Amino acid sequence: DEKSLPVLEQYDINLKEIFRTKGNYGCVTEKDIYILQEYNDGEKKGGTHNLIGTYLEKNGLCCDYPIPNKEGKYVSVSIDGYTYILKKWFNARECDISLKTDIMKSVSNLGKFHSITENTYDLWNDEYSLHNIDNIINVYERHNREIKVRNYINKRKNKSKFELDLQVEIGKYYRQGEQGIWELKNSSYEQLYKEAIANKSVCHGVFNHHSVLFEDGKTIVINMKKFGYGLQLYDFYGYLRKIMEKNEHRH
């Protein structure tokens, strides 16, 4: 929507070029590239994103983060009331999960992200506090409860062939979920999760192949809007699961 473009006047940048990219606007200046995106998470979250992004950058990890406008705010409002951020961006390609080299570089970069964010609790105060990443046990239990059609089919007396077949398939997934919950509860996961929260271990939150870019030999981490405190293995778990899904377990 070109009505968003006047928002750029709120920033102290000298635009050379504007281009469309995946529903957003890319903005080229003399030195940098930015991307204008709609943003609904509020000023506080934008400030936290900037804080963690600039901290990572100072410690040698390339990443995206919103920049402040002329008023020092990270969220800008258009004339029609929509909210936006202008993020640092890159002329880079996305991780190709069919390439083992890309996968390995991504995992290495994730490890770097986790190492840099260790012992950073002095950075966070009430203004920039992070939320807690979901406990995986709670996530599994919620997903199992969401299989509502299972209860509906079980209650039906005269089931069609389709419903009988679906009942069998849904049962398999439900039992897998129950098994996963049992194994988690009988492992050291909950204790490790509590320790990670207490130690304020920082997670990316939604790390997958869309979260990694490559540019001129650099590996870049992006899409950090779900970052928070939690067990850092959560990031690796999410990434590995996605890689296995997309590659049908080839790797």
Description:
Strand 9 (212-215) and strand 10 form a beta hairpin. A five-stranded antiparallel beta sheet has the order 1-2-3-6-5, with no helix packed on it. Strands 4-10-9-7 form a four-stranded mixed beta sheet. Strands 8-11 form a two-stranded antiparallel ribbon. The protein is 41% helix and 16% strand. It has helices at 42-58, 100-116, 136-145, 148-155, 161-185, 189-198, 233-247, and strands at 17-21, 24-28, 33-38, 62-63, 76-77, 83-89, 93-94, 202-203, 212-215, 218-221, 228-229. The chain is built from seven helices and eleven strands.
Strand order of the largest sheet: 1-2-3-6-5
Low confidence ranges = none
Q: Strand pairing plus helix content: what structural class?
A: alpha+beta
Percentage beta strand = 15-25%
Which percent bin holds the helix content? 40-55%
Cα Rg: 22 Å
Count of strand segments: 11
Give the averaged pLDDT, no decimals. Answer: 89
Order of SSEs, N→C? EEEHEEEEHHHHHEEEEH
Terminal CA distance reads 41 Å
Which outline best applies? globular
Please outline what is shown here.
The protein is α+β, with helices and mostly antiparallel strands. 41% of the residues lie in helices and 16% in strands. It has 7 helices and 11 strands.
Task: Identify the notable features of this structure and list them briefly.
11 strands; five-stranded antiparallel beta sheet; 41% helix; 7 helices; 251 residues; alpha+beta; globular; single chain
Question: How is this fold's topology laid out?
Answer:
Layout lengths: L16 E5 L2 E5 L4 E6 L3 H17 L3 E2 L12 E2 L5 E7 L3 E2 L5 H17 L19 H10 L2 H8 L5 H25 L3 H10 L3 E2 L8 E4 L2 E4 L6 E2 L3 H15 L4
Parallel strand pairs: 4-10
Antiparallel strand pairs: 1-2, 2-3, 3-6, 5-6, 7-9, 8-11, 9-10
Helix pairs in contact: 3-5
